[in-house]
Amino acid sequence: MTITLVKKILQDGSPCAKCADVLEKLEQSGHMDRIDEILIADERDPDSPGLQLAREHQVNRAPFFVVEREGQAPEIYTVYLKFVREVLEQETSESDELKEIMKDNPDLDFL
């Protein structure tokens, strides 16, 4: 799974306040390391990578997340809490489950 975060730079060059808030929440929750790439949607540059991705996926809000899983169409999330619940927490729960299996079965080993 690959996760791309797109954040916006406003026409006056200042960072998007909502984007900064989402970045702070990702840092505080320890989820920032799950983000594979951060792209900038710079309103001053219509060819900026983030604006190109927004056009490709017909997204007009920032920040947004693009979640790519092998063999599946990319999923777009424009609501941070939905992204956390459906993508990040799901993965965390699966990880916790695997840790519990390993703890309960010491004879198992990672390949």
Order of helices and strands: EHEHEEH
* Strand percent estimate: 15-25%
The rounded distance between the terminal residues' Cα atoms is 20 Å
Structural class by secondary-structure content: alpha+beta
- CATH topology, by name, is Glutaredoxin
Write down the domain tally.
Answer: 1
* Oligomeric grouping of the chains: single chain
Annotation field: number of helices = 3
List low-pLDDT spans.
none
The biggest beta sheet, please? 4 strands, mixed
Mean pLDDT: 88
Shape: elongated
Largest sheet, spatial ordering of strands: 2-1-3-4
Rg calc:
17 Å
Return the CATH architecture: 3-Layer(aba) Sandwich
Q: What helical percentage do the residues reach?
A: 40-55%
In CATH's first tier, which class applies? Alpha Beta
How many distinct beta strands?
Answer: 4
Structure description:
With 111 residues, the chain is of the alpha+beta class. It has one domain (2-80): Glutaredoxin. It is built from 3 helices and 4 strands. The chain has a 4-stranded mixed beta sheet, sandwiched between helices. Helix 1 (17-29) links the parallel strand 1 and strand 2. The protein is elongated. The two termini are 20 Å apart.
Features:
111 residues; alpha+beta; Glutaredoxin; four-stranded mixed sheet; 3 helices; 4 strands; elongated
